[in-house]
Each structure stands twice: as structure tokens, then as C-alpha cells.
UniProtKB/TrEMBL annotation:
Entry superkingdom: Eukaryota
Gene3D superfamilies recorded: Cadherins (2.60.40.60)
One GO cellular component term: microvillus membrane
Primary site of residence: membrane
Official protein name in the record: Cadherin-related family member 5
Annotated SMART domains: CA (SM00112)
Amino acid sequence: MGSWALLWPPLLLTGLLGRPPGAVAQAQYCSVNKSFFEVEENTNVTEPLVDIHVPEGQEVILGSLSTPFAFRIQGNQLFLNVTPDYEENSLLEAQLLCQSGGTLVTQLRVFVSVLDVNDNAPEFPFTTKEIRVEEDTKVNSTVIPETELQAEDKDKDDTLFYTLQEVTAGASDYFSLVGANHPALRLDRTLDFYERPNMVFWLLVRDTAEENVEPSHTATATLVLNVVPADLRPPWFLPCTFSDGHVCIQAQYHGAVPMGHTLPSPLILRPGPIYAEDGDRGINQAIIYSIFSGNVNGTFVIHPDSGNLTMARSVPSATTFLLLVKGQQADLARYSVTQVTVEAVAAAGSPPHFPQSLYRGTVALGAGAGVVVKDVAAPSQPLRIQARDPEFSDLNSAITYRITNHSHFRMEGEVVLTTTTLTQAGAFYAEVEAKNTVTSGAATTVIEIQVSEQEPPSTGGSPSEDKRFSVVDMAALGGVLGALLLLALLGLTVLVHKHYGSRLKCCSGKAPEPQPPGFDNQAFLPDHEANWAPAPSPTRDPKPAEAPPTPAEPAPPGPAPPGSAPEAPAAAQAGGSPAAVRSILTKERRPEGGYKAVWFGEDIGAEADVVVLNTPTLDVDGASDSSSGDEGEGAGPGRGPHDEPHGDDSYI
């Protein structure tokens, strides 16, 4: 022990420095100039890490403490033999042993530190996670803890960032993550099983804060949240007079019974039989019925499961019963109460009657036994056959119904059911008898049942509503369409008379005469056939002021009246001088403003062609005045100064 104790300090110093004391000068020991290196993972290092100085007569080998398969010695150089991976081994060690003749001379160590880089994507421990969430979970509660949603990243120094993305529209209003680095799922809004029974999210994770940073890796998992209905609502007596899915203004029932009689069948009530269902339809607890109060003398009995109300004894006098009926869940957690009003009325024996002589129903071809026949007018509702008793203000529970002449159908209360599978399409007619079991009075009616090849479309929520209408509906529609057609014809007549009345008048007396060849220019039509709106002529005073008498205006050129021969040009007015011409305006604009005028000779016959030689240089006012003057005054003393054509004007 003493000798080893004396040798331990020199050996320790040799291991640490790589050479014994006093060996620097002799260089008889192995050495390296660097013993610690840093290399990024996934880097393929092909160059030698370090050169090993080996004295003559010695050799160097890798010791057993070296990282397996990580290094190799080639010549007197140390090489990295693997591609380093930080996640597998973050520190590599090479033990170098220098020997001489099998004797260890020097021991050296070289370390390689592997640097971590972001080369691994995060991973969730699940692909899809499905959980159940109670409907009455409190807001701000943690629905899924962080430990169940965390992703794993082999890059130990990475910080993960989480994002919750909705797949179900509107789901992000209900749930969110506690934080970007804390993926606990939190409830933000009260759940409603009937509004959103389930919601789906994508949970995304990224190993960088920025999306566009490289390298960056992501992972995605799916979260499915199923809302479990909670017992929040009491039973509802149907039909609800109003319901929004959360609250039901429940029904109250009315009926009537005859005095002095005990009816064997369940009472017929309005708006229907006593029926309640669990307000939490997702739970749908069975309902137990009982009469809470108002059952004087135990007159009525209610079936605890069906809710059918029957009579236990007769009522001797006119009485109104106000029964409070309780519907309680089978688990006794919640209940509701409604009122049933039953009147005991004297029955004098008046027979019942049907308000309709014909009822129409429909059922699908191939329907089996026990299928309800639907109302043609409202295909989503059952066809109800109700007879009235004039002595009863409400439905008479003493009236029973049966089909007398058809084996394919039967009555169950007021509803028609099938008794067999319907294999033939077509219309079936059946007689329904309503009989008062107390007075024995009876009445009959007929039902028409249309067996169709397809089920009639439901009106509830479907965009295609019922397309079959009654005769009254079709008659009303035809009357409206007829009235609209008449109004359209009247309007069309007014428009035709307004726009084409003059042409219809001129053409109604005789066939139109042929026009001269040169009269096809629409700008030279007679005044009463001009295709542009002329300025209105001044209104004449019935008693004009004193003025010199003027000769009558000559008739404008146009078709001769019936039975008269066309006048020769010489007979119209003597002379071919400019004084025997008249002018009209055209629709052609003058460059200096106003409209161009054309001058006509009144002695021109129908055989003459109309030719425009040139245009007058009159302004608009002058042309207008001359036109109106010609029409009102004629060729005479009443002419204006511009009525006479100038020297540079041409006339036809």
C-alpha cells in the first residue's frame, strides 16, 4: 500500500497531462494538442479531429472506455467514425492508450460535445382524443388537463407553442387553451346539448415561436368533445304552446263527459291525449302520471304509464272538474304539473254530426299495418276525424268511431290506421261512423285515402313544402290570376291607344293610298304625321283682340278626301314664284345652332320628287315663327319678315 501510494501522484499527473514529469524535453510520451471539441449533431465530419504525437517505438490504440463505434485511429490521427446525434449521446469520449512492447506508457482522453439542433418534430401521444363533457360543466373549468394534451419533443431545449383550431363552426366560442405554452382545455361558455351535441378541434403544436423560422416543425392531433346531457329540464306536457328548446309553455287539456253515465273508454281531450316527455330529450326518462288534486269523489283514474284518463264513476249533476295532473320522471328527480278541465254535461240525445262530408288522407304505397294516415292538406300531421255534439261545448268523450266498409283501415280514436300492408296504389274510400255510446245517436262521413308511390314530403324544416292544394285554394288562385290578366289587357289597351291611336283612326276608314316615290324620307312627312314632337302652337283666344282680317290658311298637302280628285299643280295657286312657297323644320341640326328648314312650293303635284337643294340660313326662332305663321296665317299680309325666302334660299 505504501509503494502504490508513492506511485499514485505521478500516475495521476500522467493521466491528466498526458506525459510524466520531465518528459517534455525527452518527448518520449504520446500527446495531443487539443482534447475537447464541439460538433453539431447530424454533421458528417470527414477531417481528422486531432493528430496524435506518438514517440518512436510506441503505438496508440483506443481503450475500452471509448464510446463504442464513435472513433477510429488511422495512422496517428483520430477520426470521428459516426454522425453524432444529440438525442442519442450528447458527449463522446475517446480513450487513447500508448504502448511500447505491450506495456502501457501513456493514457490520453479526447472529448467531443454534441451540440443540439432543432431536427425533430414534436409528437402528440395520441392521434385523436375523444372525451365526454357534462352539459352542466361550469364556465372557466378545465375540461382536459395540460398533462393529457402535451406533445413531446426529443429536442430537449425546444419550447413548444400550441394552437386550438375549430373544425366545427362556432366551436371556438365554447373552448380555448389556457395559454400558448400551456395546452390545458378550458370551457368559456355554457354548453347546450341540443344546440351543439359534439364539437371537433385540431390541436396544433409548433417548436418555434414564429411560423416562418427555419428549421420549424409542427404536429397536429384531433380533439372530439361529446356533450353529455344533464338533467336540467322537467317533463313537458305536449304539445307546447311555445318552446325554444329551453322552455316549454306546456299544454292544458279540456274534455266533456255526459252526466249520469260512466264511459268505458279513455276520455277524448283537446288538444290531444295527456302526454308528457322528459324535457332533456338526450336523457329521456320515462314519465309516471298521477292526479295531484281536484279529483272529487275519485271520479277519474289516470293510467300511470300511458296517461289515459278514464271514468271510475258517473257524475250525477253538472260539474266542472279541475284536475291537476303530475308527470314525474321515473328517477323521481323532476316533475311538472298541468291542468285538465272536464265538464259533466247533460245529454238530451242529439245525434253527432261531422263538419265535413269528405275527408282526404294519404299514405305511402307499401306501408305496413298500424301506419297512421296523414292529412292531405298537412302531410306532416295525422288525419283526424272529429264529430261534434251540439250539446257539448268541447269534444264529447262518449263518441266512438269505426270504419264500416273497408278492411284495410281502422279507427283508433280519431286517427285512421292501416290494418295490412298496402300493395296497390290508388284512391280508397271508406265510411266512418261516429256513435254516441250514451244516446246511441250516430252520423257518418266518407274519407278518401290516396295510396301513393312515395311518402308525402314532410313540412317540418324541409325547403320543399306541400305542393298539393284543395279545390278552394285552386279556385282562389285562378280568380287572382284572372284579375291580373284583365288588368294587364286594360293597361295594354291604354298604351296602344295612347301611342298608336292616331294611326288606327286614319287607317280604320279606308285602305292607305300609295305614297309618292319621293315621300319616303321621314323628315318630310306632313305636319300631322311628323315623327318628332313639335312645339305646341299658341292657343287662340275665343274672342281675339281687334286685328286686321287674315285669309284662311291653305290646306296642307296630304291625301285628298274620299271622292275628290287630286288637284292639278296649276290649280293650287298661280305662279311659281318664291311667294308661293312654305317651309317646315327638319330634325337636322345647323352647325351655327337651330334646325334646318325646307321650303315647299304649294303648286307641286303628287308626281314631283322631293329634293333638297340647300338649306335656309334662318335661325331657330325665325324658322319656328315662319312655320307657325304659315300654318296660322297663310300666304298673305300676316306673313312675317322671314316668310319670304332669301336670295340664297332654294325651294322646291
